[in-house]
Amino acid sequence: MSWIAVAIGSVPGTVFGLTIGYILVSYKPEWFLNPFGRKSCRRSRSTTT
Predict the structure, then answer these.
(1) Tens-level pLDDT at each residue, the chain (49 residues)
(2) What is the DSSP string of 5-32?
(3) Which residue windows are transmembrane per the record (predicted)?
(4) Model-level pTM?
(5) What are the distances in angstroms from CA 29 to CA 32, 33, 37?
(6) Exposure string for 28-40, b = 16+ CB within 10 A, e = fewer
(7) What is the DSSP letter of 45?
């Protein structure tokens, strides 16, 4: 495979991926601030001594 074919495929793919990532981050930032649906308050272990 020639480097020209790789460039033709990777440059538009990179631009498309960055564009979609920018749109997701700008419109839904809570998806990236709260990954995997975790709640903002974490449970703390209660140690009884």
Answers:
(1) 688 888 888 999 999 999 998 888 888 777 677 766 666 555 566 666 6
(2) HHHHHHHHHHHHHHHHHHHHHHH-THHH
(3) 6-25
(4) 0.53
(5) 6, 6, 13
(6) eeeeeeeeeeeee
(7) P
